[in-house]
Design a protein that fits this description.
about 45% strand; mainly beta; binds zinc ion; about 110 residues; two-stranded antiparallel sheet; elongated; 2 domains
């Protein structure tokens, strides 16, 4: 699964909250074990930060929350369309990703 989406990819958000659906963004980080990715400017959550030190104000921090990979679709850099990803395996076992729309190696 983690093969399909990588860091630096551009992805389309398929589902999620109304605000993010249909958005595109750059993948900042992928967590293969969780099958989630952090996408730039997508799925912001607000965290309330508490501090023990009364002289420092606690605050609200917004940051991107991970999005399940199943909700992301890769945008092919060649044809610029959201696409499914195929894999091409070479004789030496190395793999490249293939855009199923235009068959370009990604
Ligand atoms: Zn393509």
């Amino acid at each position: 699964m983690s093969f399909r989406i990588r860091k630096e990819d551009r992805v389309l958000i398929l589902t999620g909250n109304a605000k993010d659906k249909g958005k595109t963004g750059k993948v900042l980080r992928v967590s293969p074990s969780q099958e989630k990715a952090i996408v730039e400017n997508v799925n912001f959550i607000t965290q309330h930060k508490r501090t023990r030190d009364p002289s420092k104000p606690g605050g609200r921090v917004t940051r991107e929350a991970p999005v399940p990979l199943s909700k992301l679709m890769l945008i092919c850099p060649k044809c610029n369309r959201p696409t499914r990803v195929g894999a091409k395996v070479f004789e030496d076992g190395s793999k490249v990703r293939i855009c199923k729309k235009c068959n370009a190696e990604i």
